[in-house]
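Protein modeling request. Please complete all fields; requests missing the sequence field cannot be processed.
Requester role: graduate student
Desired output: 3D structure, token encoding
Chains: 1
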Amino acid sequence: MKSITATAILAILFLGTGKAFSQSRKSETTKGTEQSSDKKIEVEGVGHKLNYTLNGGTVEVSGGDNTVTIKGNAKKISVSGTGNKVYIDRVDKVAIEGGNNTVYYKTAGTKSGKPDASLTGVGNKVVKQ
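Delivered output (129 residues):
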């Protein structure tokens, strides 16, 4: 009787834990696009290839080997992790931490024509296309 009760408790714990983890994960479409709000895009994980449209707001990318393409503009892009690439039409500020991350931009909303950049780590770049 004790083993049946213990097995039932373990089964409930495992099912409950799986349910909690599945609810904390951002929902994705079959193409792998994560949900975003009108003013904030958040990408977490490894190996995503995602496309968004943004008119102002912020972008946060964390993880590894993600490729994010954004049509429009952002006030700030934050990237952390390794091997991430972000392509955007216009950005004002870029903050990168980690290694070998690159933000490609076409224009910037600053007087210099280059976004304000804060780079921490090795091999991180902000490149004009």
